[in-house]
């Protein structure tokens, strides 16, 4: 073989390798988008609404949640409000929620024989019942369960974990495809008009590079709620001390009940076990009014919830999770002495708990107030635009009668990087690793299957 021929062959390989890598990245970017974009659109829309949960709930349920402030400001006692709620909806009171502000109602959770748990709203000034909803039956609780896919069972929640991992892959491959390669547009500017495919390609690329950080951040901070990864990490983070932050658990009798089973709590305290009250030695219980007085004296943030003990050794649990992480707090009181048995706050969490709770708080649009809400709202809108532009771009590009999957790389060695990705994904996020392995197997076998069918000899006539 002449030197000229060898030189041409080497040049062809040099040209082919970048092309093959681009094809592989483009192909898997397509797959990631195909799997993830429907989830991202749903999560973006429901997430954008949930950012303004207090404002929307206050507007939609104003007849139940809003009250007129009286001139003297005198309020009914918590026990009187509970009595009024039980008179209107007979059953057992399980929780009292303090009004979060001067113009909001108190909420009493009542377990009724006929209707199950109800959230009963009471005017704190005159003690009159304003009405009820099913427990967690507000419009925003509905949006939240849609956002987390809880409506569709544990399997659907596992899909959230897979979608989060694929979202990270989508962003990583998208950055590679966006990276400038001598083009003059489509990096920070948009060319053409909506009638042309290049307009939607540039819109997709430019919006994607700006929103990519938020997609990764929301995917990572949403992982704690996932069914497999979130549950296992929670067990690992809390397993050494029953979920309580280091140094907080005291030498008090502990029940087998976990905090997450009796009260809405932070992710870090889901596995926390609940202490038990003393026998009381014939002493009378302090009652709800006494417990609320203790919580007020301890300085719990307004809007805290009080879980009412249902057994003789149960405790009054006061918990609050306001926008300010520093004000998060859970306090368990002995129902007879009123003594705080355990008092936990954000400052008591370990490093992992603090980092995850901070990420969750930002994810919910709480940590930085209105600015946090508006920035994430813009990110959600950009995610929808990203998905719409991807769909239009694909529709304009795809061959008629075909799905339009980007071509397979000529040099299959470029898939070695994907195999390394499988190993990393499988270690960090097991469900993501499994889904990547399945997709890689299908991607390798389907073309061979189609080729075998295409060249199979026709059946012989009998």
Which helices and strands occur, and which strands form pairs?
Layout: H1 3-50, H2 53-60, H3 62-65, H4 78-88, E1 92-97, E2 106-112, E3 116-122, E4 129-134, H5 139-147, H6 153-178, H7 197-222, H8 229-238, E5 254-258, H9 259-262, E6 273-275, H10 287-298, E7 305-307, E8 315-320, E9 329-334, E10 340-345, H11 351-363, H12 369-397, H13 416-428, H14 430-454
Antiparallel strand pairs: 1-2, 1-7, 2-3, 3-4, 5-6, 7-8, 8-9, 9-10
Word description of this protein:
The chain has 462 residues and is of the alpha+beta class. Among the domains are: 20-53 and 155-226 and 379-399 and 406-445, no CATH class; 244-349, no CATH class. It has helices at 3-50, 53-60, 62-65, 78-88, 139-147, 153-178, 197-222, 229-238, 259-262, 287-298, 351-363, 369-397, 416-428, 430-454; strands at 92-97, 106-112, 116-122, 129-134, 254-258, 273-275, 305-307, 315-320, 329-334, 340-345. It has an eight-stranded antiparallel sheet with strand order 4-3-2-1-7-8-9-10. A hairpin with a 3-residue loop joins β2 (106-112) and β3 (116-122). It starts with a helix and ends in an 8-residue tail after the last helix. It comes from Pararhizobium polonicum. The chain crosses the membrane at residues 28-52, 159-179, 205-225, 374-395, 415-442. It holds the Pfam family PepSY. Residues 82-132 form the PepSY domain.
Summarize, please.
This protein is α+β, with helices and mostly antiparallel strands and 462 residues long.
The backbone outline, from C-alpha atoms, is: elongated
The oligomeric state is single chain
Which segments are poorly predicted (pLDDT under 50) over 5 or more consecutive residues? 1-16
Category from helices, strands and their pairing: alpha+beta
What is the count of DSSP helices, taking H or I runs of 4+ residues?
14
Percent in strands:
5-15%
> Which series of helices and strands comes N to C?
HHHHEEEEHHHHEHEHEEEEHHHH
Mean pLDDT: 83
Query: How does the major sheet shape up?
Result: 8 strands, antiparallel
Radius of gyration over C-alpha positions, nearest whole angstrom: 29 Å
Helix content: 40-55%
Number of strands: 10
Spatial separation of the terminal alpha carbons: 53 Å
Organism: Pararhizobium polonicum
InterPro entries: PepSY, PepSY-ass_TM
Pfam family, one: PepSY
Protein name: PepSY-associated TM helix domain-containing protein
């Amino acid at each position: 073989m002449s030197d000229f021929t060898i030189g041409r062959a080497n040049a062809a390989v040099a040209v082919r390798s970048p092309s093959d890598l681009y094809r592989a990245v483009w192909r898997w970017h397509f797959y990631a988008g195909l799997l993830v974009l429907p989830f991202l659109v749903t999560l973006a829309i429901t997430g954008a609404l949930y950012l303004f949960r207090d404002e929307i709930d206050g507007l939609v349920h104003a007849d139940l949640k809003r009250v007129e402030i009286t001139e003297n400001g005198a309020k009914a006692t918590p026990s009187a409000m509970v009595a009024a709620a039980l008179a209107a909806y007979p059953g057992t009171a399980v929780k009292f929620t303090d009004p979060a502000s001067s113009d909001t109602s108190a909420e009493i959770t009542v377990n009724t024989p006929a209707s199950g748990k109800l959230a009963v709203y009471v005017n704190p000034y005159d003690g009159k019942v304003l009405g009820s909803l099913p427990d967690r039956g507000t419009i925003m609780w509905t949006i939240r369960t849609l956002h987390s896919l809880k409506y569709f069972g544990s399997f659907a929640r596992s899909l959230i974990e897979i979608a989060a991992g694929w979202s990270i892959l989508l962003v990583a491959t998208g950055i590679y495809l966006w990276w400038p390669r001598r083009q003059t547009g489509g990096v920070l500017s948009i060319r053409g008009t909506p009638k042309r495919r290049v307009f939607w390609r540039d819109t997709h690329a430019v919006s994607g590079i700006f929103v990519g950080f938020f997609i990764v951040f929301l995917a990572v901070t949403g992982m704690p709620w996932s069914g497999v990864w979130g549950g296992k990490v929670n067990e690992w983070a809390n397993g050494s001390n029953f979920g309580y932050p280091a140094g907080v658990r005291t030498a008090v009798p502990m029940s087998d009940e976990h905090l997450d089973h009796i009260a809405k709590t932070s992710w870090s305290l889901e596995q926390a076990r609940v202490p038990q009250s003393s026998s009381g030695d014939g002493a009378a219980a302090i009652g709800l009014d006494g417990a609320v007085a203790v919580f007020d004296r301890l300085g719990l943030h307004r809007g805290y919830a009080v879980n009412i003990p249902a057994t003789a050794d149960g405790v009054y649990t006061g918990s609050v999770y306001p926008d300010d992480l520093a004000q998060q707090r859970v306090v368990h009181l002995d129902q007879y002495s009123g003594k705080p048995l355990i008092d936990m706050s954000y400052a008591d969490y370990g490093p992992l708990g603090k980092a995850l709770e901070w990420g969750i708080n930002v994810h919910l649009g709480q940590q930085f107030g209105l600015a946090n809400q508006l920035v994430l709202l813009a990110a959600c809108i950009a995610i929808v635009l990203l998905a719409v532009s991807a769909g239009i771009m694909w529709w304009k590009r795809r061959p008629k009668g075909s799905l339009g999957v980007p071509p397979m790389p000529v040099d299959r060695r470029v898939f070695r990087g994907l195999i390394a990705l499988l190993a990393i994904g499988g270690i960090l996020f097991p469900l993501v690793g499994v889904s990547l392995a399945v997709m890689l197997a299908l991607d390798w076998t389907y073309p061979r299957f189609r080729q075998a069918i295409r060249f199979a000899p026709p059946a012989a006539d009998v």
